[in-house]
Amino acid sequence: MLAENDNTTNVISTNPYIVASDTRYPGASCFLYIPAESPNMVFVDSYHVVRAIAEWPVWRTPALPLPHHLSFRLEEIPGRGVGMIATRSISAGELIFRERPVYAARREVNCAADQNDNGIFYRAAIHRLSQQARRSILGLQNAFPPPFDVVPGILNTNCLEIRITEKPDPKPSESFVGCFPVISRANHDCAPVANYFFNFGTFEGELRAMNDIAGGEEITITYMDLCLPKAERQAYLSRTRYFTCGCATCSTPAAELGQSDARRAQIGRLIERLDTLDTPHLPERSSLDELERALAAAEEEGLVKEYARVLLIGSQVLTIYGDLHIAMNWAQRAKRLFIMVEGAGSYNVRRLEDAERVHSAMASAPRGLRI
Ligand SMILES: C[S@@+](CC[C@H](N)C(=O)[O-])C[C@H]1O[C@@H](n2cnc3c(N)ncnc32)[C@H](O)[C@@H]1O
Question: Taking the chain, what is the end-to-end CA distance rounded to the nearest angstrom?
Fold first, then answer.
């Protein structure tokens, strides 16, 4: 068993700054530090991936400055640790904050068993970060109880999904996570008022208001798929983030909870059955009535992003089987909503622009002969 001060790392190159995590195994994960001088980000993955990432032009573009006056403050909230509180009213669609992650890694890193729970691997990863960057991680909350080490505890408590390709990752195990000094302070709600989105183009996490948020209100995001019933949501949050969600939806009286669960399951089933976007398959046929019921369910549950997804998928189904005019209207509404919750860098916005081109070609195509 390794002791914490048994150093297995080895500097492979200094520009780009790449360190092999474990000289005992060929193919062990590597740490890429960006920029090489006084790094404020470490990326953890196999050597060939970090070598390619080191060449991305985005690192030559400095991050845009933030507005002088932030629209929130970080504040201790009873029972929830630190959270983000709006200091003024924020309009739906407003960008609340954006920043690059300090730690980014493949969700399942290749790490030897004797360096995992004791934190040796993760301590080594953040070791060469600038002092400010390292402190910004070490100051975050650790929800994981001992004997789990505090550094992997902090990373597990605070990491959010990031994408290093434009399209959503097909398999969750192939996706990536990132830890953010500020955005990771956002607490969870099962009907969140803000959306966390990772902009692959700028390599920044972005936080946008999905609803109008009043001054004094907490700015919340989701950590999970919200189309699950309360029992499953709570089990997931307690297993992965060590807390019991007491949000307004989870506090719904027992008599009404069944309806809330049923609405979320209805939206989830519809999305799962009909979302064939980015696959070579056509979606199943679905009636306008069924699609409208899913929209009504999303509205009732306050699920803005799921509402946008039903509009997007529904517009594709209606383009193929239904009414082109309704499909065009739904695509326009979905695009407006996705710009609002994910910004102009959204892949969904790009998909909807493609759909608009298909729609206008179809609308101007000559009609078939009626015999
Ligand atoms: C990503 S951090 C959020 C920021 C954190 N509250 C802090 O103090 O830095 C996730 C942790 O915050 C706490 N948390 C987040 N949402 C919560 C909620 N709705 N109720 C209670 N605790 C919550 C849990 O301890 C969770 O593991």
Answer: 82
